[in-house]
Amino acid sequence: MGPQAGGGEEVTSERPAAGPAGATAPLVELDGVAKHYGNVKALDGVSMTVRAGEITCVLGDNGAGKSTLIKIIAGLHRHDAGTLRIAGEETVLGSPRQALDRGIATVYQDLAVVPLMPVWRNFFLGSEPTRGRGPFRRLDVAAMRETTHAALLRMGIDLRDVDQPIGTLSGGERQCVAIARAVHFGAKVLVLDEPTAALGVKQSGVVLKYVAAARDAGLGVVLITHNPHHAYLVGDHFVLLKRGVMAGSHAKEQISLEELTRQMAGGSELEQLSHELARAQGPGLPDGRGDGHREGPAAG
Ligand SMILES: Nc1ncnc2c1ncn2[C@@H]1O[C@H](COP(=O)(O)OP(=O)(O)OP(=O)(O)O)[C@@H](O)[C@H]1O
Ligand SMILES: [Mg+2]
């Protein structure tokens, strides 16, 4: 990325204006971020960069601090050490509304949808366009239906009927609607907490396709997952968390899927486990040597 010659013309209309820090400031930067819940240290010294047109994956086991991390970016929790910069500017987000106003849209795993309301109604929830004024003001239903259909179609989602209750869609389809919604309402950063966790292989693939489509639309995407295969399919950068601290940060070209999987699983811990399982299931256990000498503490 060479510096742009600052001659009078604008670079591209899609690039977010990044203020005086320059057009190259990442959308979001975390630097040495920490978060405690009482005396539980959920995060410590975590750093991460989110860039436009890239997917940053946050990987880690249960309790690693993934959700805590995105709640800080989403404005749900405040970090208590380190810095959060949005478009180059140091910030402490006070509420999800503030995050949204800065262009950060978060799709939680338990999607905030109203199951009995039609798809289009959920698509516009909280941002409904109206017609008329004063006592004649009413929802512009036709426009909402049409826009929802068009916005979904632009993402390649051809929903037969936007009037069906969103509760009748599959989990994967609901995730896709949520992604299309964030793109439609102009989010710059899309944060997804385990969007494929409850999905089968095929539906996971579909959701990942729309995650990639959001990236191609120029958004910076943060994808939380504990599935290295899903991460590796779409990710540009991988941040590994382990019990609240960073266990690695790699660009895709620096790491293979095998190595990512190994690091995720905690290489030696997995070897120890396979050792133990092999022993437990061993054919016949000839000389009764069950668990002779175990080496080293099982660290937590
Ligand atoms: N509101 C809270 N109050 C107290 N402790 C919390 C709270 N939220 C999370 N924790 C603790 O912080 C640590 C990190 O939790 P977090 O939910 O961020 O993990 P995670 O990586 O998202 O896990 P999972 O894969 O299970 O979703 C855990 O030890 C958890 O018990
Ligand atoms: Mg979580």
TrEMBL record:
Pfam families: ABC_tran. SUPFAM superfamilies: P-loop containing nucleoside triphosphate hydrolases. GO terms for molecular function: ATP binding. It comes from the Bacteria. Residues 1-23, 278-300 are annotated as: Disordered. Gene3D superfamilies: P-loop containing nucleotide triphosphate hydrolases. InterPro entries: AAA+_ATPase, ABC_carbohydrate_import_ATPase, ABC_transporter-like_ATP-bd, ABC_transporter-like_CS, P-loop_NTPase. Residues 28-268 form the ABC transporter domain. This is Sugar ABC transporter ATP-binding protein. Residues 288-300 have a biased composition (Basic and acidic residues). Coiled coil: none annotated. Keywords: ATP-binding, Nucleotide-binding.
